[in-house]
Every structure is written in C-alpha cells, then in structure tokens.
TrEMBL record:
It comes from Stenotrophomonas acidaminiphila. Pfam families: Gp3-like. This is Hydrolase or metal-binding protein. The keyword Hydrolase applies. GO terms for molecular function: hydrolase activity. The keyword Hydrolase applies. Keywords: Hydrolase.
Length: 298
C-alpha cells in the first residue's frame, strides 16, 4: 500500500444543495433549496448531472428534497468524517486538519501532530479554518453497485450535528445495525435571527418513507441476518476502511481539493483600516452574520 494515500470509499457521484456560479467576474458558492446528484465530471457549465438525478426528480415530482439511501458501515464515524480543516488557496492543498484536541499540520519538515484549540482559538488559521465533513451513502439499496457511494460534502454545523446525532441514535436503537436500516436524506429548512429569518437549508437523515421505527428496525435485523448468511463480512470491511483512512494524513485527493476550496472555502474580502463598532441590536447582528460560515451542504 502506498503510504500517505488515504484509501476512502469508492465514489461514483456527488450530492449537493448548492453550486458555484460566476458573479462579477468571481466564482462564488450559491445555496439551493433542493438536492442535486452529479457525476464526478465537470464541463464549462459545471458538474454533469448523474442519471439518477433525473430519475429521482421525476419520482419526486420536481424538486428533489428527499433521497432514499443506505449507509455503508455500521460505525457512524466511518460513514461521517468531520474535522476542522484549513486549506492553502494558493496551492489548493490541505494545510491543517484537527478535531479540537489534536491536529495534523503540514510544516516545512513534513506532517506534524500538534495541539488543536479549534478554529475560534487558533492563531495559525487566521480565521480561515472551519468544520468540514464528508458523508458517504448508497443511493436506494445499492442495486447497481453495492460499494459505489455518493459523497455529500458540507461545512454546515446544522448538517454535521444533525447527521451525527441521527446516526448515534439509530445505531443505539437498532443494536448497531446502521448499514441495514432503510433511510433517506431529507432537506430541511430553518430560519434564525442571524439569517434575518431567511431559510437556511441543512441535511437530515430519517427513516425511509413508509417505515415506522419498529418496522425499520425489524427489517434491518432481518437484512443483517441475510447478509451474514450470504457470507458478507461487514466487520472485516469496516476494519479495512479504518486502515484505509489511517493510511493518509489527509482524506481528500489533491486533484479534488481545488473544487472543494472553491465551493466550501470561498475567499473572504477583508477591508483594511479601522472598523467601526456596530451599535444597536441590528448592527451587532449584521456584524455577526458577516462572520458566519456558508450554511450549505454544497
């Protein structure tokens, strides 16, 4: 095995709730109110749609706001990998990845393990580090490719927290049978004072339409037994996945990082000179909104 190369789940497509558009000569991320399934190929117009996008959109009657999925692993931490990430916009390479306690940072002498205070307290990141997560799922029941996953990348705290909580609860309730549960990704909206009550969209993970908690868990246990009897060794697969993730210092390939930086880590414009202290609730909220990360899973 090549050392330094993270071996990640095979990816055949992307799931997003936004896109990159050109505005005033700059390419900027733009939020959306629906899912889009794309291939891993881009042309001048952007990412090429995956054939499943049209099929699922037709079944949904237009806007795609729910996607039937299965998880690859029973271990929630293998399905969803979240960390604090800092990228070098000049080279497009990852610079530092941490979890709030420790980090792996690229230095002139190589990758070093250092303490990680989190993005708000880190002087090294200069405010450019933020939460970044990847979720791998199978669309439907993985009929066409049992290992070919779609990846959802996100920097939304709402999405990361919701997905992590759902998987932890479903894992506990089902006796650890996450990979056998019939689930669906669902797009939800919320509004806050910080968003001026405009909707902020995030991704949730719920039981598939038509299932109650009881019927979903019963089906998951039956499916797990069938897979074991068929000789499918999920424990061995999870061990191989952990070894693959640990084989590299950073998960994303260098060829994929420029698109990730453009979509999730857009360059912020800083105005030089003294900044006036905002007065009143409205002024303080406006200043706070300007500091918020992009609340989008795409």
């Amino acid at each position: 095995m090549l050392k330094g190369l993270a071996i990640t789940p095979p990816v055949v497509g992307r799931i997003s709730i936004g896109r990159v558009v050109e505005r005033n000569g700059k390419r900027l991320p733009e939020k959306d109110d629906q899912f889009t399934l794309t291939s891993q190929v881009q042309n001048r117009e952007g990412w090429v749609l995956h054939p499943l996008d049209e099929a699922l959109r037709k079944d949904a009657g237009g806007k795609l706001r729910a996607i039937p999925v299965r998880l690859l692993f029973n271990d929630p931490a293998l399905n969803l990998r979240a960390d604090y990430s800092l990228f070098d916009r000049t080279t497009g390479r990852p610079v530092c990845v941490g979890n709030g306690e420790s980090c792996r940072r690229m230095t002139p002498s190589g990758v070093e393990s250092l303490p990680c205070p989190g993005p708000q307290e880190c002087a090294f990141s200069n405010g450019e580090c933020k939460a970044y997560a990847r979720l791998n799922v199978l669309i439907g029941d993985g009929e066409e490719d049992a290992l070919g996953s779609f990846v959802l990348r996100t920097t939304s705290f709402n999405t990361i927290r919701t997905l992590a909580a759902r998987m932890a609860y479903y894992s506990a309730l089902s006796g650890g049978q996450l990979a056998s549960l019939p689930l669906e990704l669902k797009l939800r909206g919320k509004s806050t004072t910080m968003s001026y009550r405009a909707p902020i969209y995030y991704v949730d993970l719920v039981l598939r339409t038509g299932f109650t908690l009881e019927t979903a868990i019963a089906e998951a246990r039956e499916r797990a037994v069938r897979r074991t009897e068929a000789g499918i060794d999920l424990v061995a697969m999870e061990a191989a996945a952990r070894q693959g993730f640990a084989n590299g210092a950073f998960e994303d390939l260098e060829e994929d990082v420029p698109a990730v930086v453009e979509e999730f880590f857009p360059e912020t414009t800083v105005t030089p000179g003294p900044t006036a202290v905002p007065s009143g609730l409205k002024g303080k909220l406006e200043a706070k909104v300007g500091q918020l990360p992009q609340e989008s899973a795409a």
